[in-house]
Specification:
This protein has 9 helices and 8 strands. The protein is an alpha/beta fold and 266 residues long. It has one domain: TIM Barrel, CATH 3.20.20.140. It has a 5-stranded parallel sheet with strand order 4-5-6-7-8. The radius of gyration is 17 Å and the shape is globular.
Length: 266
């Protein structure tokens, strides 16, 4: 087993795409040196599936939250349920939460309502947040300036350098994964190369956002090792340094990674 000690800060190991071979997917990740995977929920009901995965697989740790793409399934009563879950099993973060201005037909007012209310939960429990920001960095930042949380991760960051600097100023790290490995992603590759390494965390968003070498294939946490190597090559830095610093960044923004609380299996 490699000793890279990587942290996948965003991985949907509970996804149905992993149903046929989830044991093998987890084993490959461990063998590749991906020792911790943060598994975010996307709906209130999905929290149970995330919990089951995190109880079963060593190194898998949950985040509780309601994703903006599933806005039609969220109910206001789920916010109270979310608070109860946080008290029963303190997660690594509140997430995946945020705004999505890419997918057509999503009610923006409802997205903002649930985003803001979940920011308040993160604030009340002193938890970081995992942010879905697709084409929505400015409105995401607007609410972060108003509702102070302890920081978090701008997941799958693809904004401008100015937006990156503002996230960093507010105590956030920027999530980089398969998207920057594509040669055509010139702006994103420039950010991956030029941003301070101390601002970057690594993620796969498995089974989504496959790196270039997978084409349209299913992504999985084991790919994080090659993603880290690609970042190291792009920055002309030693792989060991990239692994050490990005994993340290993840632990800094999610302190619970250092001493996770494991509930009894039910």
């Amino acid at each position: 087993m490699t000793t890279l000690g990587l942290i996948d800060t965003h991985c949907h190991l509970d996804a149905v795409e992993f149903g046929p071979d989830r044991d093998e997917v987890h084993a490959r990740a461990r063998a590749a040196g991906v020792l911790i995977q943060v598994v975010p929920a996307v709906t209130e009901a999905n929290c149970d599936e995330v919990a089951a995965v995190c109880r079963r697989y060593p190194g898998c740790l949950p985040a509780w939250g309601m994703h903006p793409m599933y806005i039609s399934s969220h109910k206001e009563s789920h916010l109270a349920d979310l608070r109860k879950r946080v008290e029963e099993w303190r997660p690594q973060a509140i997430g995946e939460i945020g705004l999505d201005l890419f997918v057509e037909g999503l009610d923006l007012a409802r997205q903002e309502f649930f985003y803001v209310e979940q920011l308040k939960i993160a604030r009340d429990y002193d938890l970081p947040v995992l942010l879905h920001c697709r084409r929505a960095n400015d409105p995401i930042l607007k609410h972060l300036r108003r509702i102070k949380v302890r920081g978090g991760i701008a997941h799958a960051f693809s904004g401008s350098r100015q937006q990156a600097d503002e996230f960093i100023r507010l105590g956030f790290k920027l999530g980089f994964g398969g998207a920057f490995t594509w040669e055509r992603a010139t702006r994103l590759r420039a950010l991956a190369k030029e941003l301070p390494l101390e601002a970057i965390v690594l993620e796969t968003d498995s089974p989504d956002i496959p790196p270039a070498w997978l084409g349209r294939g299913r992504n999985e946490p084991a790919q994080l090792a090659r993603i880290a190597a690609t970042l190291a090559e792009l920055r002309d830095s030693p792989l060991a340094e990239v692994a050490r610093v990005t994993s340290g960044n993840a632990s800094a923004v999610m302190p619970g990674l250092s001493s996770p609380a494991w509930p009894m299996a039910t």
